Prior knowledge:
The protein is α+β, with helices and mostly antiparallel strands. It has helices at 17-24, 141-145, 183-196, 205-209, 240-251, 286-293, 351-359, 406-414, 421-430, 459-470, 501-504; strands spanning 2-5, 32-42, 52-53, 57-59, 62-69, 81-88, 99-109, 117-127, 132-140, 161-170, 197-203, 231-235, 258-265, 271-276, 300-306, 319-328, 333-343, 367-374, 377-380, 396-402, 431-438, 450-455, 477-482, 489-492, 512-518. Strand 23 and strand 24 (489-492) form a beta hairpin. It is flat and about 85 Å long. It starts with a strand and ends in a 14-residue tail after the last strand. The model is unreliable at 3-9 and 525-530 (pLDDT under 50).
Amino acid sequence: MDSITEGIDAVVSVYDHEDFAAKHLPNLGHDVKDFQVYTWRLTNWDELDKKTTSPEFDCGGHKWRILLFPFGNPSLSSSNVVSVYLDHAEHKESPKDWHTCAQLALVISNIHDPTIYTVAHAHHRFSAEASDWGFTRFSELRKLFNIQTGHSRPIIEEKSVDVTVYVRVLEDPTGVLWFEERPHLQAKRERAEESLFLTARVITDDTFASHEGFDLATLDEKNWPQSDLPTFRVSKQLTYSGLKSQVVTYFVLPVDKVRLWVLVNRQNKTVRPDAPIPEDCPSLTVEMICNNMAATRKDLCLYLDVITGPCNLYPPPGHIILFLKHFDMSKQTLLGVGKVYVSRDSKVEELHPIINGHMRWTPGVPLSLYEEVKPGMIELMKPKLTFAQSEIQDGDVICFQVELESQELHDFELQGLYSNPIHFYGFLQNRVMIFFRPKHKKPNSNHPEFKLVLSKHKYDTMCQRVGEYLQHDPMKLRFTTTHMASGAPKAMLQQSLNQSIEDIMRSSYGRTVILYEKLDHRRHHGARLTPR
Length: 532
């Protein structure tokens, strides 16, 4: 049996061995032959080999080690997960019929705060045919690199992390304990688990308020990190009432003050809330909800609609739910500000006082409203039309900005700033985040690691921006791409007239890493240049 725990509950330190084992290694009712805990400190995560093993340690008369694939087991098509196992270190030297039965908990934790971790536990009959056991999909990399809800720091910090294994070797007086285990069963069991469970991600008003991009969150974008959303791993047979209970418990909300909207993939490539899960069908299973309401998505993505008024008629009959974003021209930001229910038959201009009130602006501040139809299509709305006439539906996104005089707009444009949401959305559609690090040196003040947000169409702009950041002549910089899994150097970039960043990008859990070199002389095609 295997189990992965991700979440926030009673705080227990990885180093508090007794309490941690009591919490994460259930008593299986067998006598314990030996119990050991081993911690392995890893640094420079991006530079780790595709497969790496810890030093050996002893437990129960056997030598063990941790087996880690920092960018996923090669058997996976994806490199955005971590795979980690407990490996019997002497299986080749042991007798052919050897075996030992062990319980294990594998933990990846923050080096500064051992209460921030992800843990998985299992039990297994180790033998010559099955000498390692663990988790091929231990965790998504983005969850390790990003701060999760309720935590103050990410698990992987400063490129460093602790990998710990708790091992209980159990007595097996009959010699047949867990004899049904076979090496091929692990992959079969993992496939079975994939078919029995799914991931539910929840968008909230808070996550929407920090989202700068299309839709309500970044979910499937290859060139931009996914939004860090509260995530639940749930059985497909869990009822809606069970799912809702988990969600309201996590967010500490009254169960009658919450509605969960299901997001769907629209034909125009947007992902929007489509309908609330019916409250009068508490026995609906998660699988039924997915099949009936979100058949085009692989996972379940929900919007947490918190009710502020009476609950008896909600959503209000004849009304639609809209999501508002504010384009702040002076700050050059586009962020979510919340949701609003409007009558389909009301006019677009009736949103103006609602927005002014929500933003706590002086009544009558003039506004321009735009519909976020899809990437590449942002349309100015006509204030005298109704929402029905404007073909606005549940889950649509409306962006607003304060109207300015033409001279003020011209002044902003002279500064190279975007003067309206249409142009700013164009920037968002073409932006990429690139991580830079020195190729031959350890990062320091003269050769720092850093990241830049750039247009994916302009390679020359990348050279210019990196040169500005490093205070170095951009013509004296040379760049090298990196391998997706290992981060090792891949190919040196040769400048060409029509080259774009998009041509050299590859997606790796939202991270594209490019190595740079400072040169003594300007780069020329075919010339040998000396790195500094």
